[in-house]
Amino acid sequence: MNHFRKRSGELFCEEVPLARIAREVGTPTYVYSSATLRRHARVFQRAVRGLDFLACYAVKAAPNLALLALLREEGFGFDIVSGGELYRVLRAGAEPSKVVFSGVGKRRDELAAALKAGILQFNCESEEELEQLAGVARGMRRTAPVAIRVNPEVDVRTHPYIATALSTSKFGIPANRARAAYRLAAQLPDLRVVGVACHIGSQISEVKPFVEAAKKVRTLALRLRRDGHDIRHVDVGGGLGVPYGEGPEPPAPHVYGRALAEALRGVEAKVLFEPGRLLVANAAVLLTRVLLQKRGAGTRKFAVVDAAMNDLLRPALYDAHHEVEAVAPRRGPAEVVDLVGPVCESTDVLARARKLPKLREGDLVVLRTAGAYGMSMSSQYNARPRAAEVLVEGDRFRVVRQRETYADLVRGETT
Ligand code: LLP
Asked: Residue 292 is part of which domain span?
């Protein structure tokens, strides 16, 4: 479900024609639908309401302040992975008591900033990190609330670049060292054990691995309690996939919610979730303009657009599929084209061999389901200023991140 729809042949976001946004803001532009985001936020919370829960949006998926503020309004907390993300969520008015700090390596200054802010919990991923955090907390005369991210070692069918629960992965502490790590945490007086955490990967399209991981974490939580630890939070991470128009159809949130409630029955802890993609993926499109059509060898045709791999990295990095749609399709026979950007790399192909209405210079197209890990993974490669971001609310829209300028490209540099 999303609020990007054709109306008399033209693509709108809610009540706003995308052509109007292109005219007034230019391209490439990420266009977010607030109604879609709100809906997904509510659907997720309804799906897990059988549990005592706190949903912490994974900021890395799309970190714009306007999106964070909207999700805060919807009752979400935040899952952060850096001092920069901490800064962002605080700027968006987040309550620190709803913030968890994940990640396999955190700088001491980042730990200190999060301690000072008074966040809910640090998800530590190694014995070394427990010692580091304890050291920082001691220096500040504070006690740091910790959970340990345990690797539940479940096999997840997703892209190998985003699978995290394999025994070879850098993430978490191997399950067989978990109890010893908790003993260590309990011995460090500047730490307070509050929970256990896991995260098994991203764009997961079946419920089974989530259930397996949740059951393992539940068993561990009960065991740790018997060992004398005060496990109040069970963090099951994020990772539920979304449909991209190709590949397996992921389960609906209520199916996931029900299965997890069942798997975690009797755990008697607040269940933390860290959804990212699920909330924002199809709440945005990347709006781009055709620069030209060119013929390649044989019958190959390319539509060169003004967005590129620096704006949307997923196709180049993961061979990810994003549906392409013309904003106001021309009549006439469709053509098979590769949609490519202007960047000087062969992998700068946004979409391969797509059947599209004939495209000409100036035509607008969108790449769908671009909200998650779109803008957040963008760069200035090839000295391309980063795209603008627009948030639509009903029949209005506002620029929530201005397009970067050439001056932005050299900010902080000297000759
Ligand atoms: N929690 C932790 C600890 C994570 O590492 C992640 C994502 C999430 C939550 C959110 O996962 P989600 O619900 O969004 O699946 N750039 C890749 C995805 C990388 C995911 C990284 N971690 C992509 O574009 O597909």
From this structure: 4-32+281-410
